[in-house]
Structure formats: C-alpha cells, structure tokens
Specification:
Family: Belongs to the SEC15 family.
Protein name: Exocyst complex component
Keywords: Exocytosis, Transport
CATH architecture of one domain: Up-down Bundle
Number of helices: 26
InterPro entries: EXOC6/Sec15, EXOC6/Sec15_C, EXOC6/Sec15_C_dom1, EXOC6_Sec15_N, EXOC6PINT-1/Sec15/Tip20_C_dom2, Intein_C
Shape: elongated
Strand content: under 5%
CATH superfamily of one domain: Dsl1p vesicle tethering complex, Tip20p subunit, domain D
Function: Component of the exocyst complex involved in the docking of exocytic vesicles with fusion sites on the plasma membrane.
Strand order of the largest sheet: 1-2
CATH class of one domain: Mainly Alpha
Length: 813
C-alpha cells in the first residue's frame, strides 16, 4: 500500500512539472499551492523532483550550444569584416552629402524666394478679390449711416434689406460683416423708436392744432353756405355769374355789377386770401413715414393699433368739455372747433393712407363722439338762461353739422338735438319775456290811455290793432279804454315771435314746420308765461278793485287782438291758416281765464273790504233802547259799496257781448257783497263769544239791517229783477221780525209749512239767540219775579226754548 501512494505522488509531481513548463508563469501560483495542500513533506519530494528536472534541462542546453558554437564564431568573424567596409562607405556618403548640400544651397534660397513671391502674389489676388466683395458692403453701410443721419429712414430700411439679403451673405465670414449684421436689428429698433417719437410729436401737434383746423373748416363751411345763399338770391333776382369756389384754393365770386365779393367779409383783400386746408395747418409726413417704416418692418398691425388707440384717447379728451363752457359762446365755439378739427384730420388720414384707419373705425369714433356731444350739449344747455347764447349755440351746432356732413359724417342726430335745444331756447325766451311782462305790469298805471292828438292816436293804433268807430268819432282829447300795458304786451308778443323765428333759420325746415314751431312757442308764451304773469298780478295785494276792473278791460282787448297775431305769423311763414295741420293760438282761453280770475278776485277783495268794515262794528249788546239811527260803520260800508259799484260802469260795453259781460260782473259782485254782508251780520248775532243780547240791541241791529235792505232796493247795479237783491237779507229780516214782534205762536204753529211767515228762520238759530236774550233778562231783572208780567214773559221764554229744543232735536234725529 505504501508503494501505491508513492507511485501516485510521483505521477502527480510529473503532471505539475509539465503544467509549469507548458503554462504562463502568472498561473503557476495555484499549481504550486496544490503541492502544499497535499500530503505532508510532499513538497520536499517535489523539490527533489524539480531539481532532477532542472539538471536534465541543463544537460540538453549544453548539448545544443556545443552543436552550434562553430557557426556562431564564423558569423562574428564575417561581421567584423563588414564593419570596416561600412565605415568606408559611411565616409563616402558623408562626403557626397556635403558636396550636394553645398551645390543646392543657392537653388534652395532661390526656390524659397520664388515660393514666397508666389504666396504673396496669391495672397494679393485673394485680397483684391475679397476687397471687391467687401467694398460694396462697406459702401452700402456708409450709405446707410448717411441716410440715418439725414433722417431718411424709409430709404435706410431699404438699404438694410439689401445689405441683409444681397451683400452681407457674400462676405459673411468676416468679423466686420458679423458686426454689421448684429447692428442692423439694433438700427431697425432705433428707426422704430425715432419714427414712433415723431408720431407722438405729430399726435401732440394735431391735438394742439385741432382747434385751428376745426375753426378753418367751420369758417369755410359757413362761407360756403353764405355763398350759396347769395347765389340763390341772385338766381332769384336773375343776376349772377358762375362762382369760383375751391376748398383748397381761393374763394371769390364775380358779380355782374363788376364788384368782387368774398364769402366772409366781401372785400377784395380778404377775397385774395389763401383758403387753408388741413394739409396746410398740419404736417402729416410723420404719419406717412411711420406707416411706411412699420410696413417695411412687418409690424404695420402694431402701428395701426397704437395709432387708433391714441386717437381714441384724444377723442375722449376732445369730447370732454370745460366746466364753465356754458357761460360764454367762446366756450362752445372752442369745443366745436376741436371736435370738427379732430374728425377733419381723421377724414384726411382715412383718404390719404391705405388702411391706417378704416371707415368702420371712423364711424365708430363718430358714433361714440355723437353720443358724447349730445349728452354734453343737453347738460350744458340746460344751465344756460341767456336766449342769445342758446341762439349762438344753435348756430354753432348747425355749422358743425354742415361741416361734418360735407366730410361724409351722418349728422341727423345733431339736427334732432336742435329740437331739444329749440325747447331750451323757448324756455329761456319764456323766462326773459316773463321778466318783460312783469316789468310792463309793474309800470302800468291801470288807467285808460289819454290821447291828445291825431298823431298820438295813430302811434297807439300802429302798435296795437284798436278799432272803435264810436271812439274814432270823438273829438280830441279822448281816452282809449285799455291801459298802456296792452300795446306794450302786444308789441312784446310780436318781438317774441321774431326771436323764436331766429332759431328756425338754417334748420332746413319747411315753411309749414316753421309755422307750426312759431305757433306752438307763441301758445306757450300766452298760455303759460303771460297767463302766469296775469294770475300773479291779479293776486298781488296792492291791486285794488279799480285795477282789477282795468285788467278785465285789458284782457278783453288782448283777446280781440289774437286774430291779428294769427295774421302776423301767417305773413311771416306764408302758410295759410286754413291748412289742415295749422296750430291755432290759444290766446282766447288764456285771456278768458285771466278775466275770470280777475272777476273772482274782485268778489274776494270786495268781501275782504266788507269784513274790514264789519270789524269796526261796536254794538252795545246790553243797551235798553236803540239810538234811533243806523250804526256809523254800516253807513260807511254802504257808501263804499255805492261808490265801488259805480266803477263797473267803466267795463267795456261797446257791443252787446261786452255789455252783458259788464252787467253780469257787476250783478254778481253786488249779489256776492250783499250775501256776504248778510252772512257776516248773522254770524255777528250768533257769535259764541257773545253771551247776552238785549232787546234794545236787537232793535239797533234791526235798524242796520233796514239800511242794508234800503241799499238793496235802491238798485245799486242795474239789471236785477224785482226784489232779487233784497232776498240776500231775507234770513236776517225774518229772524229779526220774529224777535221784534215776538210772534212765537205763529212761528211754532206754521213751522214746516211751505207758506210759513218765518220759513227762513232755523230753529237752532232762533234758539241760540233766544237763550242769549233769556240770560239777559235773568241778569238785568233780579226782581222780575215779583212782577206778574215779567214772570209770565219768563215762563213764555222757557216754554218757547223747550219747544225750540224739541224741534232741533227732532231735526238732528
């Protein structure tokens, strides 16, 4: 068994040696490690085996060296021989090379010179060629700088475009061209900024010059209208020549009489003046230049939006009026000049540029402006109380509308606004004429107009259409029935019609429309202003009965003059009053209402005067017997009434209508006065503060009532039938008769019968008066109970009182 192990170990060592010999030395480590991993002392045996193998290889190497040694010696001997020949050859080569170098040194120098010259020649040709490409670029760039310096920006942009597309691409490899190419966008931005700055300056300029442009345009429109009116008149008269009129040149007309007239002033110097246009007043080149620049730069839309935005802002500023614009006509004129100037400029931009502004844009601006203008004029015209200023405003609106209509803007809404302004104008006229009427009424003496001579009579009748055959037959001096205010009022109404007519001028309205406007405004004057002034006049406390009577006379004559006012308007407008739609004047109702108010005021003032006399009454209600004569206050009152009713004889009675009217007023006033007097006397008897009345006071009161009845029966005003006027005192008369006769049995027996003697005596009235007399008897007759007659009378009074109370209670139930 030990032999087997030895044999295996030898075999393994042999394998390892073969592996070491056949493998790379880097892989020997694992192989050697396997030796130490085997049996103990195995490495010693391996070392022995390795030494044996090394000795074996050494022997083989020694054998091989011995075999090749002689060949090696022979090779060394030959090599030594070749070395000597090589050294000799080296010397020869070195000498040949030296001689060759010496011989080619001059050739090399000349060759290098030729090469250098050729290179220089080539470089020069290349340089010339490149310079020929660069010189146009530099020339164009120099041209660009010159154009920028001379502010020829549009040409500069064209030059830039050529540089970028044609010249710079040819020499783009050079640094200076790259610098140029980098500078071109910056130069474009500078041009945009400069052109935009010029545009802003232009916008500021037209904002400042809009006033002047508008003034010029409106003046030309006014001259044109005046010129057309003059030509129309010449055509109407048959003498005219064809006018020479130009919005951009000179404006004048040769008339057949050889004179040269100008539309504005009419003299030759002004006729030769140059008619300025928007182009003359405003330099539009910045807009054109900026538009072209932005178009070339491909940014036209930005420019258009900016321009329109700025113009909208300017439009809002232009349309914003000054706070005190309504105070003077210059404020309105400046406002309209700015608006017209703004839209004249926009119209020029619309037609001079392609698409910078469009018709839709200008229409939008105009519609916005129109709404603002109308709102502003409505507001500011409402503050104006001067009709002359409103008339100037109307003329400015018409000129503004005519001017802008000539530029193609729709102005119908402006003409519609004139109707509102006309109403405002009429309101200011009405306020002005209200003051005029008040001054006329205050200065009137309310007396008939005295006429001393024929000239004075004609002067009055020339101012007022007065015709009275009876007065005309009278000798001078004589008096006309109306007072001074009547012809003054009539004249002022005509002046009002003239003033109202002024507003209708240049409104392009038909005669029928003008006639209608005049009649409506005149109706307002009569029915509102004059009527109000008359009503206020009638209500004034200082206007007495005489003045009221004169006012009735005046209104009668003014009413009769209304038909002449109708004719006056017809003569102005040439519109027949028979036209279907012709408005009628309402003067008849106005003066009738004033007359009725005056009549009512007569009745009121008459009653107030009666009350004043009644307040002077001073009855001694406890008197035993009457004075035997009427009270002094009542006699004064009756005298006053007699004198007052004589005034009514001055009321107009030159025809049946007026006669019946005057009689009716007098009768109504007289009846009203008597009734009021009767009522006041009755209230005096029944006054609750009056506690006691004696029979003597009743007798005195009866004397006063008798005077009243005598006055009524004396026919202070003619026209009453029978004892109609006396019936005003019938209630008092029956009451006093009842107490004077002491006929209570008859009163109580016939009460409620239609034929009763004391039919107008109310039980409550009789009871109130009887109780006052009852209290008097109790107070004054302390010892009456001791006298049989007095006791019987007291019992009778108590019995009558009870019966009257039962009647009163029966009536109330």
């Amino acid at each position: 068994m030990a032999d087997n192990e030895t044999l295996e170990c030898v075999t393994e060592h042999e394998r390892i040696l073969q592996e070491i010999e056949s493998t790379d030395t880097a892989c020997v480590g694992p192989t050697l490690r396997s030796i130490y991993d085997d049996q103990p002392n195995a490495h010693k045996r391996f070392m022995e085996k390795l030494d044996a193998r090394i000795r074996n290889h050494d022997r083989e190497i020694e054998k091989m060296c011995n075999f090749h040694h002689q060949g090696f010696v022979d090779a060394i001997t030959e090599l030594l021989k070749v070395r000597a020949d090589a050294e000799k050859l080296m010397g020869q080569v070195t000498d040949t090379n030296r001689r060759l170098q010496d011989a080619g040194r001059d050739v090399t120098a000349q060759t290098e010179e030729v090469i250098r010259c050729r290179i220089q020649q080539r470089n020069m040709a290349t340089t010339v060629e490149k310079l020929q490409l660069c010189i146009p670029v530099l020339e164009m760039y120099s041209k660009l700088k010159e154009q920028l310096h001379s502010k020829r920006y549009y040409a500069a942009l064209k030059t830039m475009e050529q540089l970028e597309k044609v010249y710079i691409p040819r020499v783009s490899q050079y640094r200076f061209c790259q610098i140029m190419a980098e500078n071109l966008p910056r130069l474009r931005e500078e041009i945009k900024e400069i052109s935009m700055s010029d545009l802003k300056d232009f916008l500021e300029s037209i904002r400042k010059h809009s006033d002047k442009v508008g003034e010029t345009a409106m003046r030309q429109a006014q001259q044109h209208r005046t010129f057309n009116s003059a030509v129309a008149k010449q055509v109407h008269t048959g003498h005219y020549s064809k006018p020479v009129y130009s919005l951009s040149g000179r404006t004048h007309t040769h008339i057949s009489n050889g004179l040269l007239t100008h539309d504005d002033a009419g003299d030759e110097e002004e006729a030769d003046e140059e008619v300025l246009t928007a182009q003359d007043l405003v330099d539009f080149s910045p807009v054109y230049r900026c538009l072209h620049i932005y178009t070339v730069l491909g940014d036209r839309e930005t420019f258009e939006n900016y321009y329109r935005k700025q113009r909208k802002k300017q439009a809002r500023l232009v349309l914003q009026p000054q706070a005190n614009m309504h105070e003077t006509v210059e404020g309105y004129r400046r406002y309209f000049n700015q608006i017209v100037g703004f839209f004249v400029v926009e119209d020029h931009i619309l037609h001079a540029t392609r698409g910078l502004v469009t018709r839709a844009f200008t229409d939008e601006l105009w519609n916005m402006a129109l709404s603002k203008i109308i709102a502003v004029l409505r507001t500011h015209s409402s503050y104006c109380d001067d009709p002359d200023l409103v008339l100037e405003l109307k003329n400015l609106i018409v000129i503004c509308a005519d001017t802008l209509q000539g530029y193609g803007f729709p102005v119908n809404r402006l003409f519609d606004l004139l109707f509102e302004v006309r109403d405002q104008y009429n309101e200011t006229l009405l306020k002005k004429w209200a003051v005029v009427f008040r001054e006329i009424f205050e200065s009137d003496n309310y007396s008939p107009i005295p006429v001393e001579t024929e000239e004075e009579y004609k002067l009055v009748t020339s101012r007022f259409p007065f015709h009275d055959p009876e007065i005309e037959k009278q000798d001078f001096p004589k008096k006309l029935p109306m007072s001074q205010s009547v012809p003054q009022i009539y004249t002022q109404v005509k002046e009002f019609i003239y003033a109202s007519l002024k507003f209708s001028e240049s409104l392009h309205r038909s005669s029928t429309e003008i006639d209608d406007m005049l009649r409506k405004s005149t109706n307002l004057l009569l029915t509102r202003t004059l009527s109000s002034c008359l009503q206020n006049l009638i209500k004034k406390p200082h206007i007495g009965l005489t003045e009221l009577v004169q006012i009735i006379i005046n209104t009668t004559h003014l009413e009769q003059a209304c038909k002449y006012l109708e004719e006056f308007i017809t003569n102005i407008t040439n519109v027949s009053p028979e036209t279907v739609h012709t408005t009628r004047l309402y003067g008849l109702s106005t003066f009738k209402d004033a007359r009725h108010a005056a009549e009512g005021e007569i009745y009121t003032k008459l009653n107030q005067k009666i009350d004043e006399f009644i307040q002077l009454a001073d009855y001694e209600w406890s008197m035993a017997e009457s004075d035997g004569r009427a009270s002094g206050y009542l006699m004064d009152l009756i005298n006053f009434l007699r004198s007052t009713f004589q005034v009514f004889t001055h009321l107009p009675n030159n025809n049946n209508d007026h006669a019946s009217m005057s009689g009716k007023v007098a009768q109504t006033a007289c009846m009203s006065a008597c009734k009021h007097l009767s009522t006041s006397l009755m209230q005096m008897l029944l006054d609750t503060e009056l506690k006691q009345i004696s029979m003597g006071a009743i007798q005195q009161f009866n004397l006063d009532v008798m005077q009243c009845e005598l006055f009524a029966s004396s026919e202070p005003v003619p026209g009453f039938q029978g004892d109609t006027l006396q019936l005003a005192f019938i209630d008092l008369r029956q009451l006093l008769d009842l107490f004077m006769v002491w006929d209570w049995s008859t009163y109580l027996a016939d009460y409620g019968q239609p034929n009763s003697k004391y039919l107008r005596v109310n039980p409550a009235t009789a009871l109130a008066l009887l109780e006052k007399m009852k209290d008097t008897n109790k107070k004054n007759n302390i010892f009456s109970q001791f006298r049989k007659n007095d006791r019987d009378k007291q019992k009778l009074i108590e019995t009558v009182v009870k019966q009257l109370r039962s009647l009163v209670n029966g009536m109330s139930s």
